[in-house]
Specification:
The complex is a heterotrimer of chains A (162), B (354) and C (617). Chain A has 162 residues and is of the alpha+beta class. Chain A has helices at 8-25, 32-43, 48-58, 62-71, 91-95, 98-109, 154-159, and strands spanning 83-88, 122-127, 139-141, 144-146. A four-stranded mixed β-sheet of chain A has the order 2-1-3-4, covered by helices on one side. Helices cover 40% and strands 14% of the residues of chain C. Chain C starts with a helix and ends with a strand. Classes of the chains: A alpha+beta (162), B alpha+beta (354), C alpha/beta (617).
Chain lengths: 162, 354, 617
């Protein structure tokens, strides 16, 4: 099954992982969202072919699978950066200058909202609230929260993520 | 069956339990506008144009999904209800092309009708409007999602009656859109699974879905609708031939006993043969290598004599008859008699795989 | 039926022994980690190891004082626990040196102490008497910041699972009656009687029933549920088990928003531990009652906090609300009768069953019983998680607990209830907090976010902020919400940009009315509250934006004019060089000037000015 050409090998591994994921969820009630979540973990995003496979194997119309993917903010149909930066623009962060943090992040990375840097290192996003309002303004990089930010700090924080 | 009695706009009406307020109002002859409601489809209660005032209820319930209750009092035309309907119409129009002049549905559009009834003009709100490309890359259906009011009838028609699930909502909120997976068009059938039955068109209350071949051919009021039975197969679906100046310009759904409004791609779109110049209108007999027009008597006589000769020379099983699913059951019965009783062969088949 | 007596005694012993030792506990809730608690933890481990100190190192969750995070608790054997705030990698060594090595608390960083049986230290507030906690009560939050949330030993040792044990000995209806009698109302914001809701599901016909926990806390400014999930996950499980038993469900789902990874991790751990202890699974404690709990991680949609949208989401569909009726009590998850409560509601249940309905009903007001957890945020000095008795006034919360507004600026408004709530002005500060009173003044309890605002907050901007949120989160199913939020947002944007006309106020009024009354679900029906409440209390600010083209709070950029204060300007030229638009002119060492026609209001000049000589107004 695996081939010696790198790249292809990885792709095959991902498809195998998807198959075993689908086997696990075939008879699971309401399994589409967890399957999409885990498929996104496998591929880093949700490629069309994977979605088509999911639709077929879970016997859910493709239009519905796509409807679910595009409804939830968490799902991405395009490749994403290795590190996901989510700058909070919730109420508390808003009143304490969250947008300045976002501007600083945009400037540092050279990408806009929802965009990924060319080296696939970072994807920049905003989030409505991450629930750390006492530490506003704040942002999340992957699963880590950084609070009480000032704009000039953000570059240094990004540098710690490969 | 138990009954409930309720009062709508002062009119008392008794209906079977389980009847909705909308249905009760319709029975009482009281008009309530609807977009997303369709008696044949599931009920999302989503468009909110049918809201009514029921004192004691929270907010304004949608009459299409509110069950009539014993002793219920309903008002359909209070100032608050009228304001809500007008405002919701204004909101829909604010995100709708002001295109009635050239819209195919002009004269048969609920949005236009309700705007007219309630005296709503476009322009109450200015702001972002959708600017989707018009999807007409297939021979049958034109989708103009700028005109879509997201009533979801097409989605439900496709899922609940047709069973193809070609389209669904994608995205959400103001960006919500109806379409096939991956944002592709219906013509990408690998993804869309669309069979171009066009049943979505039959339920679209506005000009978002139209029959491509009918565009620019006739205004709604110029069309004479002739209800007839589809000649394609033995199901016997009914539909309306749309006739203008003695010519069939298209097919639209009627409410057939057999099929409701559902049709297949052939029935709805396969009418092009009617006025086609290549259509055979008299029998042709090949004489000296060329087809020559002949009378029916001459043609039938020739066929009878050739069949008789073949049977005499080679026996009845040298003959086979192929009938058509496009003829009636009675005609097929006669064909069967011709084969078995007259010619004496069981070699008969048909082409119900049109 | 089996009971937990033996195991409880054993765990109590273990717990007592543990807290009797010299120990250092780091707050590692999301807020503690965000403030740098993880690094503090690493530093402590290093220091303790390097110095060979005899001290246990442990972690706990958020005790509520977010404004002092990272927080560290230190207790010497047999001495009071002292909770320190603002502990970072650079001062933690001094702290350990003082408290553990020299056995003297580091007074300047001590927030409060919990003496237990020991003699209190002089000069440090005892927790109950500390200004932040004096007006609070700790019931649902009692374990937060006090136990290791990943330890079932500590949960059981502190009375955990006594509630389910007691419930299983009662008749199912008796459990429901007890919850009814307690007066507990839905803490997700709806305020419906929990016991009554349970009785509907109890009475509903169905071969299978579900108990679902709504942990999709999505209001900006709210983190109550997260704190409880992270700090006391077993209490949610126990609450759900009691509900499951009462209504006749054998399966439960926790729908937790995916943005709460720590909560999900701790819940999973708690489920595994409870299963190990035979508290989840088949035939719990030999009672014949079986119950399982699954976690479903949300996928990022605020509307899934709406109960029917949440059910659709668990079923793997788009999170769009369903038509009600049928209500979830009759036709809920997978079409089966379902009880849906939020995190805080479930967390209250074990306490009610354990301590009795009367104990609970003694707290609060006549119609709103018990306590409520709030998140105090915004421009208040003490931001954090608080638990207060129902009926306390906003003034007490903001000024006594919250320590007033930052930098002694005037209080302007407090926003309660998130995007569904409203802005409450100073004139209503003495309103007692309960479901009805907040509704009367145009806001709502919501889930419990309280965002404080001062005179530098523009109320039109606040309304715009919330509408932007709801507009992005609207599911798009119904017309008024989908199209109405968009247009309301556009009008607010227009007003903030200085392009508003006076008729816009009437249009907004009408849209608020129509969207509120005709939208399909709770999101749409409440999304206009931020506008209607600010129009009600701060109409003059809207008018200032529209008529005078002025933003009184100095927030709306398009309406601000940047000017140089001639007496402060030294003519250094820093602003002139910084200005990307070339709007600033001036001779060296002479006061500079900004040409308002050229100025793009980017603020670069203000950032560069070292003399505070540029103002925007």
């Amino acid at each position: 099954m695996a081939t010696s050409q790198c790249g292809e090998l990885a792709q095959t591994d991902k498809d195998v992982a998807l198959q075993s994921l689908l086997d696990q969820y075939r008879d699971y009630k309401g399994g589409l969202i967890p399957v999409l979540q885990e498929a996104q973990n496998i591929y880093g995003y949700l490629p069309k072919d994977a979605l088509q496979t999911i639709a077929k194997e879970l016997r859910i119309p493709f239009s519905k699978v796509y409807g679910v993917c595009t409804f939830y903010a968490q799902f991405h149909l395009k490749p994403r950066g290795r590190n996901i930066i989510r700058v909070c623009l919730g109420t508390a962060c808003h009143v304490r200058g969250g947008s300045k943090i976002f501007e600083a992040a945009k400037e540092h990375l050279g990408v806009g909202h929802g965009e990924t840097t060319e080296d696939l290192r970072f994807t920049l996003e905003t989030v409505a609230c991450i629930g750390a309002c006492g530490l506003s303004p704040c942002m999340m990089v992957n699963d880590e929260t950084h609070g009480r930010l000032v704009p000039k700090q953000v570059g240094g924080i990004f540098d710690t993520y490969e | 069956m138990s009954k409930v009695t309720l009062t709508i706009d002062g009119i008392q009406i008794t209906v079977p339990k389980g009847t909705t307020v909308l249905e009760a109002a319709q029975q009482a002859g009281i008009f309530i506008p609807t977009f997303c409601h369709d008696p044949e489809l599931s009920r999302p209660g989503a468009c909110r144009i049918c809201v009514v005032d029921i004192p004691g209820a929270r907010n304004m319930p949608a009459s299409c999904v509110t069950e009539a209750g014993e002793g219920m009092v309903v008002y359909t035309d209070t100032p608050a209800i009228i304001e809500a309907r007008k405002t919701n119409l204004e909101l829909l129009l604010a995100n709708h092309p002001e295109d009635c002049l050239t819209c195919h549905k002009n004269g048969n559009c609920r949005l236009q009708d309700y705007a007219y009834y309630y005296g709503v003009r476009p322009g109450a709100f200015t702001g972002e409007k959708h600017d989707y490309p018009i999807e007409d890359d297939n021979p049958f259906i034109v989708r103009d999602m700028n005109k879509c009011i997201l009533c979801s009838k097409c989605i439900r028609m496709c899922e609940e009656i047709q069973g193809n699930n070609a389209i669904d909502f994608s995205f959400r909120g103001f960006s919500a859109k109806v379409g096939p997976a991956m944002g592709t068009t219906l013509s990408d059938t690998e993804i869309s699974n669309c069979v171009f039955c066009g049943n979505c068109i039959a339920v679209c209350p506005v000009g978002a879905l139209t029959e491509k071949a009918m565009l620019g051919k006739a205004r709604q009021w110029e069309v004479e609708k002739v209800t007839t039975t589809c000649p394609y197969c033995g199901v016997g679906c009914q539909y309306d031939l749309n006739v203008k100046d003695g010519k069939v310009i298209g097919v639209t759904s009627t409410d057939g006993d057999v099929n409701g409004r559902a049709l297949c791609v052939k029935g709805r779109f396969g009418y092009g043969f009617i006025h086609h110049p290549d259509r055979l209108t008299t029998p042709l007999i090949k004489k000296d290598g060329a087809f020559v027009e002949a009378s029916w008597d001459e043609a039938i006589g020739l066929v009878a004599s050739k069949l008789g000769a073949a049977k005499d020379t080679y026996g009845p099983d040298a003959v086979a008859l192929l009938s058509s699913a496009r003829v009636t059951n009675e005609e097929n019965y006669l064909m069967n008699k011709l084969a078995r009783a007259v010619i004496g062969t069981n070699n008969i088949d048909h082409c119900a795989r049109l | 039926m089996k009971n937990l007596d033996q195991i409880r005694e054993k765990y109590k012993e273990q717990y007592k022994e543990k807290i009797g030792k010299t120990r250092i506990v780091v707050g590692l809730g999301t807020c503690g980690i965000a403030a740098g608690g993880g690094k503090v933890m690493d530093a402590i481990k290093e220091i303790v190891a390097a110095r060979g100190l005899d001290a246990d190192i442990d972690f706990t969750s958020c005790i509520g004082m977010c404004y002092r995070e990272p927080m560290v608790e230190i207790a010497l054997a047999g001495a009071p626990s002292v909770i320190y705030g603002d502990i970072f990698a650079d001062n933690v060594e001094a702290l350990i040196e003082s408290h553990i090595v020299n056995k003297t608390p580091l007074y300047e960083l001590a927030c409060f102490q919990i003496p237990g049986d020991a003699t209190p230290y002089e000069g440090i507030d005892i927790m109950d008497k500390a200004p932040y906690y004096e007006k609070q009560i700790r019931s649902v939050t009692s374990r937060l910041g006090r136990i290791n949330p990943e330890s079932i030993v500590e949960y059981i040792a502190t009375g955990g699972y006594e509630g389910i044990e007691k419930a299983l000995q009662l008749d199912r209806m008796a459990v429901i009656e007890e919850v009814k009698k307690s007066g507990l109302r839905g803490r997700g914001g709806g305020g419906f009687s929990t016991g009554t809701k349970w009785s509907f599901v109890y009475g509903a016909q169905g071969d299978k029933k579900y108990a679902v926990c709504n942990a999709d806390e999505g209001d900006p400014g709210a983190f109550m549920d997260r704190s409880v999930l992270e700090g006391d996950p077993h209490s949610i499980l126990e609450g759900m088990m009691i509900a499951g038993y009462a209504i006749g469900a054998d399966e439960g789902y926790i729908y937790c928003r995916a943005e709460y990874p720590i909560a999900i991790k701790r819940l999973n751990l708690a489920i595994a531990k409870a299963e190990e202890h035979g508290l989840l699974g088949d035939n719990i404690l030999d009672s014949g009652f079986s119950f399982r709990i699954k976690i479903k991680a949300g996928a990022g949609a605020f509307v899934c906090g709406e109960e029917t949208a949440l059910l659709n989401s668990i079923e793997g569909l788009r999170g769009m609300p369903r038509v009600r009726p049928p209500y979830p009590a009759h036709k809920g998850l997978f079409g089966k009768p379902t009880v849906l409560n939020n995190v805080e509601t479930y967390a209250n249940v074990p306490f009610i069953i354990r301590n009795g309905a009367d104990w609970y009903a003694a707290m609060g007001t006549e119609k709103s019983k018990g306590s409520k957890v709030f998140c105090l945020t915004g421009k208040v000095n003490n931001t954090g998680l608080i638990e207060v008795p129902m009926g306390i006034t906003l003034r007490d919360i903001i000024f006594a607990i919250g320590g007033g507004i930052q930098n002694d600026r005037p209080f302007k408004a407090v926003q309660s209830g998130g995007p569904s709530g409203g802005c409450i002005p100073a004139e209503h500060l003495d309103t007692p907090i309960d479901y009805e009173s907040l509704g009367e003044i145009g806001s709502m309890m919501g889930s419990g976010g309280l965002v404080c605002m001062d005179d530098t907050t523009c109320m039109v901007d606040v309304a715009k902020f919330f509408l932007n949120f709801t507009q992005l989160e609207s599911c798009g199913k119904c017309t008024p919400c989908r199209e109405g939020t968009k247009r309301m947002l556009e009008i607010l944007q227009k007003i903030c940009d200085g392009n508003g006309v006076i008729e816009d106020i009437d249009t907004l009024d009408r849209l608020c009315r129509v969207v509120t009354s005709s939208a399909m679900c709770g999101l749409g029906q409440t999304c206009a509250n931020p506008i209607s409440s600010t129009l009600r209390y701060f109409r003059d600010e809207y008018e200032a934006h529209i008529i005078d083209k002025r933003c009184p709070a100095g927030v709306c950029n398009a309406l601000l004019v940047y000017t140089v204060l001639a007496d402060k300007c030294t003519g250094c030229g820093a602003c002139l060089r910084a200005c990307p638009a070339g709007a600033i002119t001036g001779e060296k060492k002479q006061p500079h000037k900004i040409d308002p026609a050229v100025c793009i209001k980017c603020g670069a000049c203000i950032q560069k000015c070292k003399f505070d000589a540029i103002i925007k107004a």
